[in-house]
Batch of 4 targets.
Target 1
Amino acid sequence: MTALIRRLLPLLLALTPLPALAQQPAGPPALAWKTGAEARAIERRIDALLARMTMAEKIGQLNLFGRGDGFRPEWVAEGRTGAVMNFTAPAEIAAVRARVAESRLKIPLILGLDAINGFATYFPQPIGQASTFNPRLVELASYWSAREARAVGINWTFAPMIDMTRDARWGRNMEGAGEDVHLASVVAAARVVGYQRGGLATTAKHFVGYGAPEGGRDYNSVWIPVSQLWDYQLPPFRAAIGAGTFSVMTSLSAMNGIAATGDRDLVTGILKQRFGFRGFVVSDFDSVRELINHGMAADRAEAARKAFLAGVDMDMMSGAYDAHLADEIRAGRVPAAALDDAVRRVLRVKFHMGLFDEPPFDPATAARDLATPASREASLAVARESIVMLRNHEQALPLRSSVRSIAVVGGAATHQEDWQYSDNAGLPRVRPPKLPDELSRLLGPDVSVSFAPGLATHCNLAAGDTAGAVRTAEAADVVVVMLGEDCEQIGEGTSRAHLDLPPVQQALLDALITTGKPVVVILHTTRPFVLTRFEGRVAAILQAFHLGTEGRTALAEVITGRTNPSGKLPMTFPRATGQVPIYYDRLPTGRPRLTDARYETGYTDEKLEPLYPFGFGLSFSRFGFDALALDAPRFARTGTVSGSVRVANTSGPAGKEVVQVYVHQRVGSRSRPLRQLRFFEKVEVAAGGEVRVRFAFPVRSLGFHDDQGRFRVEPGEYDVYVGNDSNATLTARFTVN
Ligand code: BGC
C-alpha cells in the first residue's frame, strides 16, 4: 500500500481543484525526508554529534516533557530534554527555545502539540475532513493547521490520528477517518503531506489498534486477528510512512494481550524493520509508566527498560527514561547500541527538519500568520464539502423563496468558541460567525431570522427555556435546530454506552416537531448518533462533524442553496446502539438475511441494515450512474483494474458527486468481505450535464493476508459495484488471472 499511496497521492491531490485562495505571505519550508547525498551527509553529521555526546545528553534527547507538569525550562539548558510539548504562547515558546543556546551541544528542540484540526483558525474535525471525500481539502486543512502552529514556534504535531474507527461508542472517532481502510489510508497520507508542507513534523498514531477497544471503551484491551491487523489496521500506517511521517506514536492500549508500548514485535519488528520506518517512535502520554498498570512491569525501571527495548525511542511525560535509563544501561540490561540507535532517530528527524540550520525564532512575526483571510477561506472551503445531508424530505432544502421567517434554535448555533483539543489561551482567536447572522446575511431583509437557545447552555445537556423555543418556532415558517453532544463528551476518554441524542435535546426536538413546522436538524456531533427515533419526522438532517470556524457560514450556504452539499459518511450510522460495531465491509455469513426468517443473520428486534450506509450523502441534484465498462474482462495479478462509468446530473443545480467503486471477490480461500471500497473520486457535474469518470486500482489492492501475515492475491472472479454509496448496485465482473 505504501508505494501505491505514494504513487496515487499526487494524482489524487491534483484531480480536485482548489478554490482560489486569498494572498498570503510565503509559508515555512515544507518538511520532507531528504534523500541521496543529502541524507548521507546527515548521517555523517549525526555520527559526529553522537561521538561528542555524554550518556546523559543522549538520554536527554529521548525525554519529552510538557509545559506545567513539573517541567523546568532550565532542563533545556542542561541537555536534559530534547523535546517539549503543550507550549502555545509565542513569547513562552521563544523563551524555552532560547535556552538551547545555553546548552553544551546546542541541539535544537522539537516542540509538539495536538493541532488536530487547527490552531487559530479551526477546520472540521478530522472525521469531518474525511467526509469531504476530497483528499485535496484534507491536505489543505492540515496545511493551515500546521502553518498557524508553526507561526508561533511549534514544529511538531501529535497528528494525524490514523486509527481505524468502526465503533461509534468510542469518543475518538472524531480524530480519525472512519471505518474504511482505503479512505483512511488516503486521508492519512493527505494529512501527513499537508502538515509537513505547512512546517510541522507529523506523528502517525496510535500504533496500533487503539481505535478498536472492546465495547468501544477508551483504553480498553483490543483483540485483533493477524489477518485483520494486516488488512485493516496497518495500511493507514504504511500510507503515512509512505507519505513521509517523521514520527509514530504507540497506542495506550494492549493488543492481543501485549501493551503496544512494550511490544517489540510490533514496534521494532513491524514498524521499524518490515516497514523500514527511519523516524522516531514516541510513547503516548505516560504510556511507558502505564506498563505497570498493564501488569507488564513491576516498577518504573522495568517499564523504561521494556518500552525502550521494544523500540520506543522517546518517552512522553512519564519521566521513566529520565529516571532509569542510565542505570539500566550501566547495569547492562539495555545495550548502549540501542541508545545510540534511538538518539540517532531523534537527531535524524531534527536534521531532516532543518532545525540545526534554522534562524532563531522571532515571536514578533507570529501574528502575521494566524487567522488570515487565506486560512479562513480554506476553512470555509473544507466546511462546505464536509456537510453530509442525510435527509431532505420533499426537498425541504434549500429553503423555498416562499419562506419569510426562520426560527433558529439551540445554543450551538450561536456560541463563539470552537471546540479545541489543546488549550491555546492567549492567542488571537477568531470568533466564529453565528448561524442566525449568516442566514440573515444570505437571505436579506425580506426574511426574518429569530433565535431561541432552547437549552440552558451551548453545551447542550441542561434543559432550558423549551416553551420559549416553541413560541419562536410557532411564529416562523421553518425551524432550524442545532443539536449536539455535551462539550465534555467529545474526544478522548468519552466513550458512550448510548448513542441517542441526550434526553433534554430529544425532548426539545419533540416539542419543536409538535409545532407542525418543518424542522431542519443540524447535528453538531463528533460520531454517528442513532437518529432512528426522529429521522422520519423531520424535514431535513444535516450532519456537521464540528465544522470549525467557518462552519455556520457553510451551513447557512447549504440551507439557502448557495452550496450544494457533497459530503459522504465515513462511518455507518446505526439504527440502534446494539448494532454497533456496524460497518459495510463485513463478511457474508452462512445464513445471509434473505427472507427475514429466524435462522438468518440479524436481530429479532431491529433490522440488520443501518439507518444510513457508509459513503451515503444527499445532494440537491440527482445523479445517475450508467454505462459502466471495464477496460478488459481479465486482468493480470500484477496489473491494474481499470474502467469507466457515466455520471449524469439528471435534476437540480450543478453539484459534486463522489464516484465510489467497490469490489467483491466471489470465491476465495477465506471468506471475503461483501464489498470493499477500492477507488473514489469527487467530480463536479453541471446541471443537466454528464461526465465519464475513469477509475483504476492495482489488482494487488484486492489481496489480503492470512493468519500468518502472508499476503496473497487470488485468481478468480471479482464483482465491481459502482455508485454513490456502499449500497451501489451498478455492477460488472472481471477475472484475475
Ligand atoms: C493521547 C494522545 C495525545 C497525547 C498528548 C494522549 O492522552 O492519547 O493522542 O497526543 O495525549 O496530548
Target 2
Amino acid sequence: MCAFAISDTVYCVHADIQTSDLFEGIWSIKDGVSLNSYVVKGEKIAFIDLVKDWKEAPQQIGEALASIGIEFAAIDYLILNHIEPDHTGWLKEFRALNPHCEILSTDKGCKLVKSFYKIEAGVRAVKDGDMLDLGKGQILTFIEAPNVHWPETMFTWHEASGTLFPCDAFGSFGALGDRVFDDTFTDEERAFFEKETIRYYANIVSSFSLFVEKAVQKVKHLDIQCIAPSHGIVWRKNPQKIIDLYSTYASYAKGPADKEIAVIWSSMYGNTKAGLDAVIRGIEAEGVPYTIHRVPDEDASYILADAWKSSALVIAMPTYEYAMFPPMAYIIDLFKRKHLFGKTVLRIGSFGWIGGAKKEYEAAIDPLKWTSLESREWAGFPSQEDLADLEKSGRQLAQIVKHR
Ligand code: FEO
C-alpha cells in the first residue's frame, strides 16, 4: 500500500479488508471494504481516523505511512471523528507505540474512548467550530454531526485544500485496491461502487436519514473540493456526486424512491411461488423494472439495499405455523429497524389448513406507514381465478409506481 496525495499536505492511507467476516457482525462484505485514514502535515502531523486490527489493517496503514516517510510514533494528533471500533479498534496498540500523541474527539467521543479502551490521559474534547492549528497554514476545523450514525460523530474540515473528512458519511462498501480517487475508476467501476454505496447506506446509515440531511445542510456553505470518507472512494473530481447520492438516499426515508419494485419472496413447496409468478407477469406487462430476492437464500444486506431504493415492494410468503414464514418475519423486522417508510406494498401468500401470516404481518408493518394493496391469500395451489387476480394486482402495483 502507498499513500495517495490529496494536496501537498494531505494524504489518504487506506487498508483493504477482504474477508468472509461480516461488517458489524451482520452485513456481507463479499467484495471487501476499505478503511481509510488521512494525514495532514503542518509543523505538526495530524492523523484522522484509525483502524481496527483486522486483516492486517494496521500493517497496511503503516506501509502507506512509510511511503511518505511517517511513522506512527511521529503523529502529534489523532483525530477520532467516530469511535466505532472499525476506526478505533487498534487504539490501545497505537497508544503503546505513541504515548505522546494527543487524541481529539467530541465530548461524547472522549467518553467512548474511556469506556471502550480505558484511555483518559491525553484525550481532549473538541466542540463544534473548534480549530486545530498544525502550523504552516494547516488548520483543521471540527464540525459536530451527531447521529451520522452514532451520537458522538463529527466531521473534520481542512480549508486550505477544501477537504472534508466525514468518516462514515458519504462512505461505501467495496475494497479499493491500488486506487482511491473517483476519477481513477472506470464508469463500470464507479457503477459498482454506487451499488455498494446504497447498500452501505441502507445497512449502516438509513435509520439516521434525518441526521444525514442535517449534516449535509451544515456543510453546504463550505467550498468542498474533496470528500474523503473513511470507507470507499475519495471524491476529488466530483465531490458533489456523493453528496447528491446521500441526499437522495436520505430523501427515500420520507416517501417514494426510484420507480422500481423490490420483489421479496419465500415459498415452502412452490404454491406461493406459483402465485408470485402471476404477479410478476403483471409487473412485466406494465414494463416496470424490478429486483427479485428469495428469503432466506439471499443475504439480507442486499435485500435491504434494493428495498430502500424501490418505491414499491411485493412481499410473498406462505403461512407457517399460523404465522409469518420465520425468515420473512426477520426481514420485516429489519425493515422496521431501518425505517423503511413510505412504500407501496402488495403482500401475497399461500396457506395449508388455515391462514395466519396476514394477521401477524399487518400488526408488524403498522409502524411503517406503508400503503398496502389488498392482500391476496389462497389455500394450497392458486386456482385460475386466484392467478388472474394476482396478475391484476401485479399490474395495479406497477401502474402506481409508473404514475406516481
Ligand atoms: Fe465505519 Fe460507524 O463505523
Target 3
Amino acid sequence: MTIMLKNPYAQATFLKSAALVSQLPEDTGFEVAFAGRSNAGKSSALNCLTNIRQLAKTSRTPGRTQLINVFSLADETKRLIDLPGYGYAKVPFQVKRDWQKNLAHYLDVRQSLRGLILLMDSRHPLKELDQSMIEWGLSRQLPIHILLTKADKLSRLQARNAQLLVEKHYELMADLLSVQLFSSLKKQGVEELIKTLNQWMGFGEELTGGDNDGGER
Ligand code: GDP
C-alpha cells in the first residue's frame, strides 16, 4: 500500500549558488546536502523531489561548475544543498583540489548540516571517492542516507543484492547510515527519501502521517 506523504520539498525554490562556504546563507536552521559522483543521477533525483527543472541544467557542464546550489523550502529555516558532483575525469586538477578543500571545509564547519544524501549508481556502488566521502561524513558523526540510483536498470534481485552489498559494507555504522533503492525515472523510493529528509529537517508528525506511517517499504 502506498501512503502519500506531504512533500514539503515540492515547494523548494532556488536561493543562490555559492563558490565558497563563506558565500552560503547564514549557518542557522536545518540543511541537508546531496552529494555524488558526476552522472550518479543527483540532478534527476533533486528534480524528482522538488520539481525544479532548472537543476537539470547544472549537470550538462559537468566539472565546469563547481558551485554549491542552495534551495530554500517554504519554511525558510530549512534548505537543500546541491553539492558539485565529484569524480568527473575532465575536471582540471586545480579545480578538483580547490573543491576538495571547499567540501572538507563545508562538512567540517557547517552547524546547520543535519545529514548527507549520498547518491551512487546502483550498478556501480562504492567507488573509491564514494567511500572517502562516506567515511569523511561518518568520522564527524554526520548521518548518511544512501540512494542507489537508476534502480530501474536492475532486476529486482540485482537491486536487492546491490542494497545488501552496501548495507553489509557499513553494517557497523548502521546507526548513522541507511540505504535505499531509488529511480527518478520510475519515481521509486521518493517517499522513503522524504521520510528521511523530514526527520533530519525537524518536521513534525503532521508531515509524516502521524499514526499511519506504515507505507515504508
Ligand atoms: P548528475 O550528474 O548526478 O546530476 O546526474 P543526472 O541526473 O544528470 O543523470 C545522469 C544520467 O543518468 C542522465 O542521462 C539521466 O537521464 C540518467 N538517469 C538519472 N536518473 C535515472 C534513473 O532513475 N533511471 C535511469 N534509467 N536513468 C537515469
Target 4
Amino acid sequence: MDRLVIQGGHPLRGRIRVSGAKNAALPCLAAALLTDETVVLSNLPAVADIRTMVKVLQALGTEAALEAHPDGFELTATLACKGSEDPKAPYDLVKTMRASILVLGPLLARFGRATVSLPGGCAIGARPVNLHLEALERMGAQIEISHGYIHATVKGRLKAIDHAFEKVSVGATENILMAAALAEGTTVLRNAALEPEIGDLARLLVEMGAQIEGIGTGTLTITGVARLRGCEHAVIADRIEAGTYLCAVAAACGDVVLDRCEPEHLRSLLDLLERSGCVITEREGQDGRQLRIQREPGQKLRSKDVTTLPFPGFPTDLQAQVMAVMTQACGISVINEGIFENRFQHAMELERLGANLRTDGHTAIVAGPEELTGCTVMATDLRASAALVIAGLVARGETIVDRIYHLDRGYSGLERKLQGVGARIERVGGGKV
Ligand code: UD1
C-alpha cells in the first residue's frame, strides 16, 4: 500500500495550478444519465472518485471514455448513456463512494426505474439519504428498501413538487435538481444548498436544455422538459483543493501563487487566514483568477475560532486542514463541526505529531503554537489525510502518512504539486491512482 514520506520544516515557494472540483465533477457525471446524446466533461480532476463514478455510469449502460491530459492532473470524459433494461448501481461501487447515490434522481427521471445500493455509514458520520428519498417519493416514486438496495420506480414521468428541504443537503439538492429537470411541471426547491458545485451542475443542466431559475440562490425553480441534449462543459476549480494548499502555506510558511482558482468560493477561509496574519492577494491571471498567500518563517499566526456551516459558511471539508494550521497559531482556537457528527478523527493523529488539543463532541480546542515532530500517522478519510500531510510539512524530521488511498480519492497529484513548490514529499509503495 502506498504511503507518503515527508521531511518537514521547509517553506513552500512557487506556483500550483488548481484542478477541477471533484464535488462538481461527480454530479455533472451523473447528469450525463439524463440524455442519450453525448456529454463531454472536461477539467475533471484525475482522482479515484472520478474513475469510480465512470464505472458506476458504465454499469448503468453508459458508453464512457476517459482521456488523461498530458500533465496527468486532468481528465476529459466523453459519455453517451443509451440506457439499460435494469439500471443498477451495485454495492461494490457504491460502498467505495457515497456520491454514487447521485445517479438515483437522473435514472428515475429518465428510465422510470432504478436500483441503487444504500451507501451505509462512513468514517465521518451516519450520512443518511432520507432527504433524497422523501423528495423523490413526493414526486411520485415508489421506493422500497430491501437486501441493502433502494428499489425505486415511477409510473410515467416524475411529477413536479413545491418542496422545502428539512435540512440543507448538497447531495439531496443535486439529486432532486436533476430529477426535476425531466419531471412534468414546475418544481420549486426551497432551502436548497448554496454550494458553488450546485451552481456548476445547474449551468451544465441549462446547457443540456433544462429550464432553471434561481441558480446560486436557496430557491431553485425548475420547469421540466421532455428531453435533454448533449453538450460540452468544463467543471469549476476545486475550492477545497485550493483551500488545502492555502492551509499548507499558512502552516508551513512560504509564498505560493495558486493559478486558476475562484476566490469568491473561498471567502470564509481567506477571511480566516487573513485575520490569522497571512498575507493574501488576488488578481486576474492569464488562466483565470489567482490567489497568492505569504507567510514568512518567523511571522506569527494568531489563533482564530472556526465553525463549519453550509456555504457560504466555513466548509466542513476544510475543517481538518485548518485544525493543522491552528496547531501553529498563538493562542486557543475553538473549532466547532456543524455538519458531520464524527469528523475529528484526525485530531488524535495530530496529537501523535505533537499537537496540543482536546475534542469533546462537536468541539475541538487547539492550543498553539506547538512544535510538531514527525512520526507515522494513519488517515481515516480524505480531508483528514490532507490535514496530516500539512502537519507533516510543518513537523521536524520525517512523517509517514499511511493509507493514502483516501487522498487519491480526491486530490489530483498532491505530492507532485507539493514537490513543485519545494516540499520534500515522496510517494513510496509504487502504486498509482
Ligand atoms: C457533500 C460533499 C462533501 C461535503 C458535504 C457537506 C460531495 C460529493 N460531497 O456531501 O464533501 O462534506 O457535502 O458540505 O459533494 N443529511 C441527512 N439526510 C440526507 C442527506 C444529508 O440527514 O438525506 C445530513 C448529513 O448527514 C450531514 C448534512 O445533512 O449531516 C449535510 O450533508 P450533505 O450536504 O448531504 O453532504 P453530501 O452531499 O453527502
